[in-house]
Design brief:
Elements (H helix, E strand, L loop, with lengths): L1 E8 L4 E9 L2 E6 L10 E3 L4 E4 L1 E6 L4 E2 L2 E2 L4 H10 L2 E8 L7 H12 L6 E7 L7 H10 L4 E5 L10 H14 L2 E5 L3 H14 L5 H6 L2 H18 L3 E3 L5 H12 L4 E5 L1 H5 L24 H12 L5 E2 L32 H11 L4 H15 L17 E5 L4 E2 L18 E2 L2 E7 L2 E5 L2 E2 L14
Parallel strand pairs: 1-4, 1-5, 6-9, 9-10, 10-11, 11-12, 12-13, 13-14, 14-15
Antiparallel strand pairs: 1-2, 2-3, 5-16, 7-8, 16-19, 17-18, 19-20, 20-21
The chain binds N-(aminocarbonyl)-beta-alanine and zinc ion (2 copies).
Length: 454
Amino acid sequence: MLIKNALIIGEKESFEGDIRIEGERIHEIGPALHAKEGEKLIHAEGCLAVPGGVDVHTHFDMPCGEIRTSDDFYTGTRAAIAGGTTTIMDFSEPAKGASLQSGLDCWHEKAGGRSFCDYGFHMTLSRCDEQIEQEIVSMIAQGVTTFKAYTAYKGDLGVDDRELYRLLKLMKKYGTLLMVHCENGDILEERRKELGKEAPEKIINHALSRPNEVEHEAVSRVIDMASLVGAPVYIVHTSTRQALDEIRRAKQRGMSVFCETCPQYLLLTEKRYSLPGFEGAKYVCSPPLRTEEDRRRLWQGIREDVVDTISTDHCSFLFYGQKSQGREDFRKIPNGLPGVEHRLELLYSCGAASGLDYTKIARLTAGSPARIMGLYPKKGVIAPGSDADIVLLTRDCPKMITAASQMQAVDYTPYEGMEVSHCVRDVFLRGHQAVRAGKVLTKVPKGRYLPHRV
Ligand code: URP
Ligand code: ZN
Ligand code: ZN
């Protein structure tokens, strides 16, 4: 197959040219490649050819108390590929006290034969006991080399400092990577109690219970611990200017600290929590949306290469029936936002509008996450030998993001009404066309499990 006349977005530069795909891989890239006899041609004049998106932060089919996220692997990855994301990495979460193996088996069962994207798993570590080292070794053998710990949600998923320190030491020992959800769990729980007593019906209290300091303190502590141990660390969903500055300083000291942020922190602010009625519940996620100043500073962090990756933290709950369980009490609103479908279109559109180079957007949404997670150069780049995961984006027919037109199995989108100038036209997953003219072509998922080694 030959993709003709696209603006190809490479790692460092963009150039007009053609991409030849043979089997599942990119065979060659160049100007004016000649079509072979019988070769299928895809005309891409006016389109960008960007690397298939790599979203390394999703929560599909994730239990949350009595409910579970509304997108499972089938609906979530179908939405992802419709939006140009060809690889996802989801967090497998063993039940409380259960083995890592049970978590991994469970996630394989959820995803197997039901994923439209290629997929890998991180493993959530919510305990650090005698057995954990052997279990980590076993995960590595099965292609899981990225792990996640929470400093929040104590008594459930969260770990304390002693456990975190030990986990970081194990990461160092085995050359694996710890991703950390950084919020000071004790302080935010106290504030939730205080604010829940005062005015449980006020959604803004979600944000006030988890102010910037709560994230900053935890990021700073985790970075210090990682520095002490000499282990790299990946800070998920960075939302505040203070945390960003902390990460910048650590990088300047030469530490391997990776910074992830998400579209919601770049595009939305805490003002959403004061919308009339219960509308603000749509935006309840942790960490919460922040101020305009935080938003501005995160974009600056992107320009200055402090931010490494932009993934979604896609964690969808229905507005009617799930978010609504917190109508009387903000503490009962399930935390999380959908976004996997719109990440690429939003970022290429808003990024380009704010003067970012296309190559940088490609690095943030594909190349860097693939590198950090050990999937590069199979994933994350348009280059000979890489998987032919390619997205053609049009720039001449803007569209409006709406819940009515989305594929995500959720009854709203936080980006309702936003116009995107860069829209997904065609998507190829390992050379197979999955999306044509914006429509997913098949009902049969072709995604494969991706063991990875960081
Ligand atoms: O609110 C969020 N982000 N929910 C998903 C779980 C997490 O903390 O990443
Ligand atoms: Zn988190
Ligand atoms: Zn998450």
